[in-house]
Design a protein that fits this description.
76% of the residues lie in helices and 0% in strands. The chain is mostly helical. It has one domain. Helix 2 crosses helix 5 and helix 4 runs antiparallel to helix 5. The longest helix is centred in the C-terminal third of the chain and has 25 residues. It is globular, with a radius of gyration of 13 Å.
Amino acid sequence: MRDILSMLHALQRPRLLMRAARIGAEDYRRATHLPRLLGYGVLPRHGAALLKLMDLEAALETQRTDADAGYSLMRHVDVMIAIVAEARVLRAAQSAAR
């Protein structure tokens, strides 16, 4: 799990995107938001969800930097909100395990 958090820490994204994600993470509801992003079915554990979300975000970042016409800023913000919120839960779980 430490590798996932260090990978997240290394992400370099626009300041406004990250600020919107941090604000949105306050209202994040895993059972509501995650199925919309990852597909319906059994919710994955926090670490697995983060890996899937990071793959989605990498594709969105590529679209953003390539100025792809299919890029959706709202979807990018939604994915970043989920990443920030899932990372917070993962960090809290690691802190409690110590």
